[in-house]
């Protein structure tokens, strides 16, 4: 599985993790992922994920005026989003521990 495929599969975890540190607009979320060493996320993947998480109550969005262009949505983690981030991190840790244990198993 490629890095891009893992990114798509874990996108909610990644987005919530980015928003944990500070509110950001969509481009800011994508830039933070790139700064962390991940591949750029296409808008066709990012924005539907943001809409879904907003509909699920994990993030809240507010329009912010921009001095250099049109207004843009700024996303912020909600209390439910913090709980979801904790849950997703626990699931990720369990998954990676199980995968690592399989990788460490002796050959037969």
TrEMBL record:
Signal peptide: none annotated. Residues 15-86 form the Transcription regulator PadR N-terminal domain. It comes from the Bacteria. InterPro entries: Metal_resp_DNA-bind_regulator, Tscrpt_reg_PadR_N, WH-like_DNA-bd_sf, WH_DNA-bd_sf. It holds the Pfam family PadR. This is PadR family transcriptional regulator. The lineage of its organism: Bacteria, Bacillati, Actinomycetota, Actinomycetes, Mycobacteriales.
